[in-house]
Amino acid sequence: MAEALIAEIKATFADPLALENSLIANGAVYKGLDHQVDTYFVVPNGRLKLRQGSIENTLIYYKRVEANGIKSSDVKFVPLEEGQVEGIKNLLLALHDLLVVVDKQRKIFFIENVKFHIDQVKDLGAFIEIEAIGKYGQAYAELSDQCKNYMERFGIKNQDCLNVSYSDMLLKKA
Predict the structure, then answer these.
(1) Is 140 helix (H, G, I), strand (E, B) or coil?
(2) Looking at the whole model, is its pTM more than 0.90?
(3) Can you name the CATH fold of 2-173?
(4) Pairing between strand 47-52 and 98-111?
(5) Residue 99: which residues within 8 A CB-CB, separation 6 or more?
(6) Which of 28, 41, 66, 101 pairs as cysteine with 109 (C-beta 3.0–4.6 A)?
């Protein structure tokens, strides 16, 4: 199991193609387009999701205070092989109720330790996520500053930021 401290934002963005071009112009490395299906399970605290994708397959547990602007997440995760995902999903469904499923097309970019997602989420629309990924013991302020820097660089304002997750948005629509 791996652990990470993450400073992150999720925001609406009017022109995903312009953002993609800006990322490339700023030296971002494109990792690819990942069709991700995140299955969320009912747990007593935090969030538990199983990510199934063509690039990323991961069991993820995290705690995050939902707030506008930059958020801190305490994340524990286990990378999975593609062949393990269905079995783990079935086991989790036997242990936990299904909360919601988030289906998205995600373009993944990196600049050093900062991960950028340009997401097209089924039934919700287009979004940008910025995740400054640190190690335990690293100062959160440093990660938060990285997020702020990229928000400014790409013209993302605090009022563009969402204070809830995709899963919360879908649950609210249901």
Answers:
(1) helix
(2) yes
(3) Hypothetical Protein Pfu-838710-001 (2.40.320)
(4) unpaired
(5) 40, 41, 42, 167, 171
(6) 28
